[in-house]
């Protein structure tokens, strides 16, 4: 069969079918998809810039960006044109072959991350896959100077590195880990931000230390000043690798290409994903220096889809737009304005983060019990008011909007937050009263 025998244009609605409302789509969802995500909050059908629309026609300001993924917002014209052009030319070839976009993207990532000579890139499809590759890289650091065996990997309490088995072993949250134990062995978790605890755990049996510069899933918690430098010295002295997970913090999210910029350290490896493809799935492991780049040899790791022409074209377009459209400066300016404005609200107890990765700890309103999921109620109230945010904890709201968010758009959320908290508090207080009455 030739392409001439196929319809050249076909409305997408003919392929997916139609439903009259979001509720109807959700009913179809529950009948056909596994329930690992629970019930979706809305059925989204269209996006433009920092806004999305649901199946019922309601507009939302997207302050989560697909969890720090949509770096340039939705339907960015340059990125979509590059993806379309590449897909109409060459979509997939496997890694028996390469493509110009794959090579060019690897070169660009080595350039913008300041990787030293001998550094290399491995492309995957997601952050968890990038961290799986990094875990295997760590396992290759298996012998110490005394010809003994290295078997231990150290990660931090509060860490989130993914949900596949290796990445899950690095992840600290018990609720994620325990249903799937036994996990790959040898991983120990030490208290977050405690240099002495890290120094005590890292010895000549340690293969690597994994850490995030800012723990996003834990509530946007930055490492304390000096911790990265201390971790670099501790791992260097022990012959262990320092692997930095920048899946959420990288690619401009904090106002720099990497959150570790300015720390003075050179890691052994960095993982990237989320914002790298501007919404198109892609991940990357960057090995720093020739010695680390040679740890994984031909046949020791691989992927069918990783680094395909379309994904690497999408990432190239995303990087180009960030470079040429003043995006990093916008992240710094709007992020600072947003953090300062939020900090001034009496409803806010603390604001953390850098750039446009922000954690907002809410003050507990009168009448709301300590055990209440205040942030979850605020997320629901925000949806009703036309804002998409996220609650990584019961008192914490996370913001990770597109990097093109304007100051005016940010201001609308700041202005709305007091009423969102009040609405959430009223709902929680009423529920508590009703429960006590019973």
Automatic annotation (TrEMBL):
More info: May also have succinyldiaminopimelate aminotransferase activity, thus carrying out the corresponding step in lysine biosynthesis.
Cofactor comment text: Binds 1 pyridoxal phosphate per subunit.
Name the UniProt record assigns to this protein: Acetylornithine aminotransferase
Pathway in which this enzyme or protein is active: Amino-acid biosynthesis; L-arginine biosynthesis; N(2)-acetyl-L-ornithine from L-glutamate: step 4/4
Organism: Sinomonas cellulolyticus
Cofactor(s) of this protein: pyridoxal 5'-phosphate
InterPro entries, sorted: AcOrn/SuccOrn_fam, Aminotrans_3, Aminotrans_3_PPA_site, Class-III_PLP-dep_AT, PyrdxlP-dep_Trfase, PyrdxlP-dep_Trfase_major, PyrdxlP-dep_Trfase_small
PTM sites of type N6-(pyridoxal phosphate)lysine: 274
Stored PANTHER family: ACETYLORNITHINE AMINOTRANSFERASE, MITOCHONDRIAL, AMINOTRANSFERASE CLASS III
Binding site for N(2)-acetyl-L-ornithine: 163, 303
Family classification: Belongs to the class-III pyridoxal-phosphate-dependent aminotransferase family. ArgD subfamily.
GO function terms (MF aspect): N2-acetyl-L-ornithine:2-oxoglutarate 5-aminotransferase activity
Enzyme class: transferase
A family per Pfam: Aminotran_3
Cellular compartment(s): Cytoplasm
Keyword annotations: Amino-acid biosynthesis, Aminotransferase, Arginine biosynthesis, Cytoplasm, Pyridoxal phosphate, Transferase
């Amino acid at each position: 069969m030739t392409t001439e025998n196929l319809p050249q244009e076909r409305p997408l609605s003919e392929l997916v079918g139609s439903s009259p409302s979001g509720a109807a789509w959700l009913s179809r969802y529950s009948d056909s998809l596994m329930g690992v995500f629970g019930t979706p909050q809305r059925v989204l059908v269209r996006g433009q810039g920092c806004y999305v629309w649901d199946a019922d026609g309601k507009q939302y300001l997207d302050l989560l960006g697909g969890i720090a993924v949509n770096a340039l917002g939705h339907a960015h014209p340059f990125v979509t044109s590059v993806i379309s052009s590449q897909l109409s030319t060459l979509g997939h070839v496997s890694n028996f072959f390469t493509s110009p976009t794959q090579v060019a993207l690897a070169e660009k990532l080595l350039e913008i991350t300041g990787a030293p000579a001998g550094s290399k890139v491995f492309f995957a499809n997601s952050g968890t896959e990038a961290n799986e590759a990094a875990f295997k890289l760590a396992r290759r650091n298996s012998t110490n100077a005394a010809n003994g065996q290295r078997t231990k990997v150290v990660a931090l309490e509060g860490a989130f590195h993914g949900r596949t088995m290796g990445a899950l072993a690095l992840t600290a949250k018990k609720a994620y880990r325990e249903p799937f134990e036994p996990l790959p062995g040898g991983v120990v978790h030490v208290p977050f931000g405690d240099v002495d605890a890290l120094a005590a755990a890292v010895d000549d049996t340690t293969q690597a230390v994994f850490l995030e510069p800012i723990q996003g899933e834990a509530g946007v918690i930055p490492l304390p000043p000096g911790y990265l430098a201390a971790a670099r010295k501790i791992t260097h002295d022990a012959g262990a690798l320092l692997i930095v997970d920048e899946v959420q913090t990288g690619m401009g999210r904090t106002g720099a290409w990497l959150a570790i910029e300015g720390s003075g350290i050179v890691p052994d490896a960095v993982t990237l994903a989320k914002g790298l493809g501007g919404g198109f799935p892609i991940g990357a492991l960057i090995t720093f220096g020739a010695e680390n780049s040679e740890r994984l040899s031909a046949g020791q790791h691989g992927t069918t889809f990783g680094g395909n022409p379309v994904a690497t074209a999408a990432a190239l377009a995303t990087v180009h737009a960030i470079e040429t459209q003043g995006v990093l400066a916008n992240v710094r300016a709007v992020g600072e304005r947003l953090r300062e404005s939020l900090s001034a609200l009496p409803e806010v107890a603390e604001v953390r983060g850098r750039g446009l990765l922000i954690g907002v700890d809410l003050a507990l309103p009168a009448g709301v019990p300590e055990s209440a999921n205040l942030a979850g109620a605020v997320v629901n109230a925000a949806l009703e008011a036309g804002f998409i945010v996220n609650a990584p904890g019961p008192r914490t709201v996370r913001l990770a909007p597109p990097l093109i968010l304007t100051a005016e758009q940010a201001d609308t959320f700041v202005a709305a937050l007091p009423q969102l908290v009040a609405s959430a508090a009223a709902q929680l207080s009423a529920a508590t009263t009703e429960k006590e009455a019973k």
